[in-house]
Amino acid sequence: MHLLRRVSGGDQLQPDLRLFFVRSIGVLVLVLLAVACGRSDTAGVPSAQAEPSPPPSRTEDPRPKIVFLGDSLTAGLGLVETQSYPGLLQDRMDAEGFRFEVVNAGVSGDTSAGGVRRLDWALQEDVKILIVALGANDGLRGLSVNEMKQNLARIIESARAKGVVVILAGMEAPPNYGPEYVASFRQAYRDLALQYKVQFVPFLLDKVAGQPAMNQPDGIHPNAQGAGVVADTVWAVLKPLLDQFSAS
Questions:
Q1: In the annotation, is 72 catalytic?
Q2: Catalytic residue flag (residue 206)
Q3: 221 is catalytic
Q4: Is the predicted pLDDT of residue 162 greater than 50, yes or no?
Q5: Is the pLDDT of residue 223 over 70?
Q6: In the structure, what pLDDT confidence band is assigned to residue 59 with cuts at 50, 70 and 90?
Q7: Which residues make beta-bridge pairs with 200?
Q8: Number of helices and strands (H, E) in the chain?
Q9: Predicted model pTM
Q10: Catalytic pick from 72, 84, 112, 184?
Q11: Is 170 helix (H, G, I), strand (E, B) or coil?
C-alpha cells in the first residue's frame, strides 16, 4: 500500500556536468524568470512569490518519518503525487521492507528562509531523517548566499538538536548572476556538509538538469523519468542510513 504523505507546511560535482548545466539552462532560466515575474500564477519555475498553502491534517501512521523539506522540485510540480521523487522513494522503501513513512514537505516557491519557518511544524512527529532540499529559489532570485547558508545551518542545527539525522541536497545557481555568485552558491552546500558532517547529495538534479528528455516543457522541473533519476541519486545516500536504522 502506498502511504506517501504530502504536506505543505562530501563529494564534488563533476566539472563537466556543472558546465553542461550552466550552459544548457542559463538562457532558459532568464526567460522563465521574466515570464514568471509577469504572471500572477505559480505554475512555472519555482517562483519566490508563491504563497505556501496551509498544511493538511496529519495522519496517524505509527511508522517513524522521513521528511523531505524542499520546494517545487520536491513537491513534484507537474506530476502526480506518486511520481515525485519522495513518492518513488516511498515505493522503494516499501518494496525493500523499510518501515518508514515519507512526508513530502515540498512547497512550490519556498526558499531557505521559508524552510526555517516551517521546520518546527515539519519535525513535530517521530522524524528520524530529514532531507533538506532547499535553495533553488534563493538562487533563482539571486538572494544572499550568506543568508541562505545561515538558514540551512539553522535547519541542520535545529534538526540535530531533536536527534534527527540530516541529509543535505545541494543545488546550482543559474549563471545570470555571474560566476562568483555561482561558485559561492555551490560552495555553501559543501561548506555546510563539511562543517556539520552531514550526509550529502552534491547536486539534487545530477544527470537531470539540462537534459530535455528528463524535464517538463519548462526545462526546470523533472518529468516522471527525471524524477526517477533524482530518486536514484537520493537513494544512494539514503539507503545506507536506512540499513543502519534497521540494524540498530
A1: yes
A2: no
A3: yes
A4: yes
A5: yes
A6: low
A7: 168
A8: 8, 6
A9: 0.80
A10: 72
A11: coil
